[in-house]
């Protein structure tokens, strides 16, 4: 496959480089000289022509909060801020990163369809569409809470899926997840690298996402595009993911290459995704097109990438209707992730739903949420001191570290493997005659492996 052919996705690194440079020429104006913050840009995602000063005031920050935050953050420009900065609770949503990992499961029926497909290229089309479907949720401009080391998230009662995720490392922050139903197995080791640019941040997904379709045992491997969060401090915060997504069938060599268009002049190209399903000989078989915040469609094509005569564009997926004017831009499924309705019997005490800062923020108490967030972070530091003073190392419960280190476009990743113990744990509980808990929400959040008398 010629990676420079615009019909066939474009070069991966050149696409990213061009996308990022285009942000400078997109409808943006320097705030410098207008409100006194050198080097910051405000970009209108709709491509409007409002004055930069007016646009800069449309964010969710009060001016005094914005000014104070900028004084704190300006020293980090150019740095990776993944875990080195304590952020104000004002910018958070009432969900942890472990829960956000589970949002990919909303349209899991697409993987069921992929597993049932006889056609290997339609199988890839459905699986790729499933990975695209989560981008509607990823456009939310609120930050999820960083999980505490040892924190977990469990989900049941959706599509026959059992989902478990765990925070397996704190420095660097690494999460691992496993989901399974009768059609597929999904495994992920997730780590991110960031670059803070002042009024924006680039996010590079140093992770490994793999799906095994059970009927034929094929293994699919994903390389997603990077993400850019714009107008963090000044203006309306918005998210874009310019670059290439590549999904490879490791069993057959077939692959999908999709190009996520960057937002251009007057919002042109925003949300648009185009590309092809290719066979192992790198010949296009299916054209894919759509918008990641609306729908995806497909059509069989010839070796030149042109639609086959007598075929038509068919819709594979459309985003579900979302609540209007939701405070955190949540979908109905996102609300379910916070609900105990999706929790299993005898929920683990380390589950994200039980975090006191998360529940306080959900109820609208920012002051209490900030207090609880600080308390949890200090408890985490104290537990680390206690653990290290005993000469012990943290050991994840549901995932095991491996000797495998896999390369990604943005850095190497240490792989964690699901160890099967959660399946045994859940089977033992589900087969017991114990009485189902009626007030699981009263449980105290407890991800700690080592008890400490009090925070130091």
From TrEMBL:
Domain of life: Eukaryota
Keywords: Lipid transport, Lipid-binding, Transport
UniProt xrefs under Pfam families: Oxysterol_BP
Composition-biased stretches (Basic and acidic residues): 351-360, 372-391, 427-442
Gene Ontology molecular functions: sterol binding
GO CC annotation terms, alphabetical: cytosol; membrane
Gene Ontology terms describing biological process: lipid transport
Region of interest called Disordered, as start-end residue ranges on this chain: 351-404, 427-456
Keyword Transport set for record: yes
PANTHER family registered for this protein in UniProt: OXYSTEROL-BINDING PROTEIN-RELATED (PTHR10972), OXYSTEROL-BINDING PROTEIN-RELATED PROTEIN 3B (PTHR10972:SF164)
Family the UniProt entry places it in: Belongs to the OSBP family.
Name this polypeptide is given: Oxysterol-binding protein
